Amino acid sequence: MSIRKKKNIVSNDNVLAETKEMLKKRFIRRTVIKTGLIGAGFYAFEKSIINPVRSIAAESSPTKDKPKLPLGLMPTIRPTRDGFTVLNTGIIATEIEKIRNSESDYKESWIEAWQALAKLIEVNKTFVEEYQKQRNNPNYPISGIPIGELRDFFNRAGEGQDPIGVILGCVDSRVHYERRLSLKDSDDVPAFFIERSIGNIVNPYNDLSLGATVQYNLEGIGRDVVLLIQMVHQNCGMVGAAADEKAMKLGGSLEEAGYLVKPAVEPRSPWKGFIGSWPNQTAKDVNVLANGIMQLAHLFASSEYLKERLKQNRIFPVLGYIPLDTPKVYLFKLPQELLKMYETITVPET
Predict the structure, then answer these.
(1) Domain that holds residue 116
(2) Which of 70, 171, 225, 242 has the most neighbouring CB atoms within 10 Å?
(3) E strands of the chain, at which residues?
């Protein structure tokens, strides 16, 4: 094997100028050839692959009659797990100490929030320890529920679910559906999906969550008939704020929510004409019940799918009412005329 030594290059102005000119021509020639080949290749690729794909995309692209569905947002920062921590009482104690030493304007409220998290962790820890200790004692009650029922629930929960319907409720912290209705998913007590929104509100222009939940009950779970309970409650703050127009003065989302309730609570609202009477009924009771049936109208107005299933008798709407000062729950059958109206109601064009 021989090693070729580099030749000594003697350079002067003339030689250097000629060399630069030669290299320039060679570069231009090669660039023209390359771009021509690449351009021809791209032309063929675009004609055979890209254009057909564009055609398909154009046919399936959103139009006025076929609006584009909203997509989930992407993060605006690089993914990081820093700070993503399983909380325990030790970590919480450290965080509370940091806050005590900080200059936050809301120091006491932040400490209260961290203490609430610590209490939740402690309550669950006690529950787990007691459950493990008494798991072979089926009659031993935890939170009023015998161990045997809890054990059966956990065994079934891992195997799947078969809820009979959906409860639409308010976000109010005083309304505990599981306690009042004993929704333990036992063999003799039906299970429900539970959806909550402030004031039981359904957005008739863009409902996704509740409508999708009802559809999942029909299609995903495979129920022939879904029981849809609109469960309103006494002294609903959102309904009251819409009735006296306080919500509208707050602006933001509460203002929009107020206007989605207002038609039901007007003094002469036609929605109130569907409400029957019972002893000790108040004007506030009528307002929350009228709002309940109007929000059901919003739900069906938001979805042709749901209206069609209602026509097919596959959705069974019921109105429920919870008084806060007693454990009683009232369930009301809705007028047939109202259900027929739900089958055809649409959102007015703006």
Answers:
(1) 85-160
(2) 242
(3) 141-142, 145-146, 165-170, 192-197, 226-233, 315-322, 330-332
State how far the Cα of 144 lies from the Cα of 122, in Å rounded to an integer. Answer: 18
Q: How far apart are CA 41 and CA 50, in angstroms?
A: 12
Contacts of 42 (CB under 8 A, 6+ apart): none
Sign, Cα dihedral of 71, 226, 150, 154: negative
Number of domains in the chain: 2
Do residues 183 and 240 touch, judged by C-beta distance below 8 A?
A: no
Residue-wise pLDDT for 12-54, tens only, equals 455 456 655 665 666 566 555 555 555 555 555 555 554 544 4
Q: What is the pLDDT of residue 59?
A: 42
Residue that the structure tokens 């709407």 belong to? 317
Report residues of the chain scoring pLDDT below 70. 1-70, 183-188, 350
Instruction: Report if residue 37 sits inside a domain.
Output: no
Element (H, E) at 121: helix 107-134
What does the chain come to in residues? 350
Query: Mapped to the 3 state alphabet, what secondary structure does 201-246 carry?
Result: CCCCCCCCHHHHHHHHHHHHCCCCCEEEEEEEECCCHHHHHHHCCH
Phi, psi of 67 (to 5 degrees): -65, 150
Of 106, 130, 160, which closes a domain?
160
DSSP 333: P
Q: Is residue 180 part of a domain?
A: yes
Give the end of a domain, one of 118, 144, 160. 160
Asked if residue 105 belongs to a domain, the reply is yes
Contacts of 100 (CB under 8 A, 6+ apart): 107, 111
Residue 204: closest CA among 303, 298, 300: 298
